[in-house]
Amino acid sequence: MLFDTHAHLNDDAFKNDLEKTVNRAREAGVKLINIVGFDDKSIKRALEIVELYDEMYLTVGWHPVEAIDFTEEKYNMIKDLALNHKKVIAIGEIGLDYYWDKSPKEIQKEVFRKQIKLAKEVKKPIVIHCRDAMADTLKILQEENAKEVGGIMHCFSGSVESMKIALKENFHISLAGPVTYKNAKTPKEIARLCPSDRLLLETDCPYLTPSPYRGKRNESSYVKYVAQEIADLREMSYEKLASLTYNNACNLFKIKNKER
Q1: Which element (helix H / strand E) includes 72?
Q2: How far apart are the first and last CA of the chain?
Q3: CA 77 from centroid of its chain's CA atoms
Q4: Which residues share a beta bridge with 199?
Q5: β-strands 30-37, 2-7 pairing
Q6: What is the mean pLDDT of each run of 10 residues along the chain (260 residues)?
Q7: What's the pLDDT score for residue 199?
Q8: Any idea what the Cα angle at residue 244 is, between residues 35 and 63, rounded to 5°?
Q9: Could you say which DSSP state residue 147 is in?
Q10: Phi-psi domain of 118 (left: phi exceeds 0; alpha: psi -120 through 50; beta: other)
Q11: pTM
Q12: d(Cα 104, Cα 115) in Å, to the nearest integer?
């Protein structure tokens, strides 16, 4: 059994074939999927999807790229969903993104801190988006005592040293399609070294498609390629890797539907 812990099936890329995409995921052994809503449009669509499928769960938050548009109204919407929607399992994806320049860094940091405090208030783990901002991201996690709720370093792209700091702050390491790329030296090293009880799988679909489909639209069924690559790197069976990452995710998200 597989758990795609970070998917954007709410993206327009799936608007014409969502049902077929979900069926392919089921056939590939994907039992649970976490859909991430990070702005008004994606949260609205995610809410619609999780009502249609029993295996779908939901993470809500405000993306750092969109931080400049974050308001008290957005904050209250996320808080209300986190407290009252039975399928909301985490706050995210939140964090820092210094690649795009839509939102100034100081505004990103302020919005990031607000949402960490919110996660602690509603007692939900955090899903972290970090792009070109690892040092500041880890610093804020430490300063805000985010370890109180912990969470996920989504599609982790940092160094081994960064991973060690994240682990100390009670965060899981989630790997996606890039670990399958031939020259992805650091992600492969992370895959080998990450403690078994802190390792997670994701697709981040429709982005970051793994080999052998790199360059095409990603989808949840392709998480099996991520699982196989990591299993090979760790010299363990695919079944064991799938099982441990599935149960890691269920434990983190407090989902009772664990493997028996």
Answers
A1: helix 72-84
A2: 11
A3: 20
A4: 173
A5: parallel
A6: 98 98 98 98 98 97 98 98 98 97 96 98 98 98 98 97 98 98 96 98 98 96 98 98 98 79
A7: 98
A8: 25
A9: G
A10: alpha
A11: 0.97
A12: 17
